[in-house]
Write a structure and sequence with these properties.
Largest sheet: 3 strands, antiparallel
Structural class: mainly alpha
Strand order of the largest sheet: 2-1-3
Shape: elongated
Strand content: 5-15%
Order of helices and strands: HEEEHH
Helix content: 40-55%
Distance between the termini: 58 Å
Number of strands: 3
Length: about 150
Amino acid sequence: MILTRAIPFFLLALGFAPSASAQVFKCTDATGKVSYTNERSAAKGCESLSNEQSVSTVSMRGAQSAASFPRVSSSAQKERDSARRQVLENELANEETALEEARKTLAEQEAVRHGDERNYQKVLDRLQPLKENIERRERNIEALNKEISGLR
């Protein structure tokens, strides 16, 4: 209901939107990547689009080009990679320690049977969070090993 009321206002607003016309060129590089430009100097070998063809544009003001993007020296990158590997290895060691503790706790709790647990389902319910903790630790270890193996 609200949407049907808003459509005429939206269409009216589009009618008052300022229109800009500029020569637009469609460029295709050797790999088949298509780009659009309005700069004649960059349009060598590009096809001019007529005014009947519609092109949506997005302003790239403030965006950095690849050439102006800061570069990192190889030694600095190696230091970063080394620090990252160290952090991941520390996390892996912590997770492995926590996994052993969780397995130990589960084994201890499996041997214990409380007086109010005559129904075996109550035992399973009490042990379930411990089993989930073990599974979570195992998934974390697997993810960390995968992350470490992907490092250079």
